[in-house]
Amino acid sequence: MSNYESESKLENRMIEQLRKQGYSYIEINDVKELEENFRSQVNLHNKVELKGKDLSDKEFEKLMIKISGKSIFQSAKELRQKHDIIRDDGTVAYIELFNISISFSLNSNDFNEQGVLILSFISKTVVNNIIS
Q1: Is the N or C terminus of the chain more exposed, i.e. has fewer CB atoms within 10 Å?
Q2: What DSSP assignment string belongs to the chain?
Q3: Regarding beta strands 110-111 and 24-25, do their DSSP bridges make them parallel or antiparallel, or are they unpaired?
Q4: What span, in angstroms and rounded, lies between the C-alpha atoms of 31 and 23?
Q5: Selection from 90, 105, 96 nearest residue 123 by Cα
């Protein structure tokens, strides 16, 4: 007798286990929703650096230009680096996408139905590189 478990059953068990551990389920259906979630997480994670003022559309666009169009390897590096963004008021903010200096448990605890942990701030660059 085999111990085979379908991918669907495995995903459902993983989702249930993550919920029990305090993770929140988020539904991301397309790139637009992924980008919106990413932006929200970047603003939340950098609240102190941004002095409580979320990135404007123009500032977020600058960040996306900086991190987009990279190889998977380069994208992984970009996630660990701080990115300087000139704010609309002329000040410079150093945006951190993923805090590797602390435990994963202190990063955002969101996941989607495919069982992919969105431990903090997954850029659409990484997702697009994986898909293509």
Answers
A1: N
A2: ------HHHHHHHHHHHHHHTTPEE----SHHHHHHHHHHHHHHHTTTTTTT-PPPHHHHHHHHHHHSS--HHHHHHHHHSEEEEE-TTS-EEEEES--TTS-GGGS--EE-TT--EE-S---HHHHHHHH-
A3: parallel
A4: 22
A5: 96
The token pair at 118 is 């969105």
User: pTM of this prediction?
Assistant: 0.66
pLDDT per position as a tens digit, 53-88:
999 999 999 999 988 888 888 888 888 889 999 999
Cα–Cα distances (Å) from 125 to 1, 8, 48, in that order, read: 43, 27, 25
- Quickly state the pLDDT bin for 1 (edges 50, 70, 90): low
* Cα separation, 64 vs 31, whole angstroms: 13
Which amino acid is located at 16 in the chain? E
